[in-house]
Write a structure and sequence with these properties.
The chain has a 5-stranded antiparallel sheet, with helices on both faces. Strands 3-4 form a two-stranded antiparallel ribbon. The protein has a two-stranded antiparallel sheet with strand order 5-6. α4 (113-126) crosses α7 and α7 crosses α8 (181-192). A hairpin with a 3-residue loop joins β8 (261-266) and β9. It is of the alpha+beta class. It is 42% helix and 12% strand. It has one domain: Beta-lactamase. It is globular and about 50 Å long. The protein has helices spanning 3-15, 65-76, 98-102, 113-126, 130-139, 151-159, 162-173, 181-192, 198-204, 224-237, 243-249, 286-299; strands at residues 39-44, 49-53, 59-60, 195-196, 213-214, 219-220, 253-256, 261-266, 270-275. The two termini are 17 Å apart. It binds glutamine. Glutamine (GLN) binds next to loops.
Length: 304
Amino acid sequence: MNHQKIIQEVFSKVNTLESKGNLASYIPELANLNPDKFGVHISTTSSIKYGLGDYKEKFSIQSIAKVLSLCLAFKTFDGNIWERVDVEPSGTAFNSLVQLESDNGIPRNPFINAGAMVICDILISNLKNPKEDLLAFIKSLSANNDINYSAKIAASEKSVGYRNVALCNFIKSFGNIKNDPNEVLDFYFDLCSLELSCEHLSDLFLFLANNGKTPHNNKQILTKAQSQRVNALMQTCGFYDESGEFAFKVGLAGKSGVGGGIIAILPNEYSIVVWSPKLNEKGNSYKGMKFLENFTTLTEQSLF
Ligand code: GLN
């Protein structure tokens, strides 16, 4: 399979498309992004690495980081995560409050904001230094150590984070947040502020295409069964109320973020990241979705 040739072809096709959608301007710092940024990078289990466009530039990975916090909770928490967070697609926006009332504060899945906050709460209860430990965990996933939170992005989001504050307090009222909501929110905003490039992200997500094992040093990060479950959750819940469409048009396990990045996994084959900051009305990268749809059409490889 010549992934590189197909990436070149799809990249030039999608690059010429009218850049529809809007920046995630509800976070003031993200409103300053250059909307024309466009990068892609693939890392394969057979050690091929290939990128085009702005693939070396760091961007705000936002909700993509929710996969990493879930993996760390899966690895370190010996209780049952799934008593506190469900594994069902929500069919609602990432920041929706509506289902929590009828679901008694149990978020539908770990990738909507509510679910990611409960995972943050679990990590705070179980780790000595959650912020440092999460960073160390992410560093262990690839050979590249150049990873950090962005204090600027976290502060920017916090300054307007009314809905997330409401979500966290609402879940607390049901008893499904154990720690101080302010502490949970601080950790959540830091988590979302992580900045990485397409190249770096596709490298460090490769363990999910490799049955839970990091290809660069053969470390078993998650068991095979855990890694399969994380991929299943990405496939069913990674794009909020556009998850069905992503399965239908792209057919990979994936996760988006409002910084315009998308990570997608084809188990046993590759991890690929696309970044283009303008978002469609569901909060997913407009060009990123188009790129991956065309990519899996031409490669004729998907989960199905
Ligand atoms: N930090 C963002 C928020 O909480 C994450 C949303 C996303 O990337 N979908 O609103």
